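Attaching the record inline, Q. Sequence:
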Amino acid sequence: MVNVTIGGKATDALSDIAQTTFNVEDEYDKVEPTISGFGSIIRLEAWRNGDDLDGRKYNISVTAKDKADNQTSSSVTVICPHDQSKK
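Structure, as predicted:
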């Protein structure tokens, strides 16, 4: 397991942020931890299928909605590399 800190922030100078929603998608559809907010630490599994040579990929996204009901989203791909010691 690998610790990943959820960094960043959502701001809106005019109407302030009403809600942030986080989502984690595991390429294997197995590990999808809940994120409570920015600054949270989640644990992602680095284990991979034997034929997946580029590491295990997770897509982490956040959607922020302001009090005027405008929203925007951002995402990042996190790769948990596999152990290179056994080739």
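The mean pLDDT is 90. The two ends are 21 Å apart (CA to CA).

More tomorrow.
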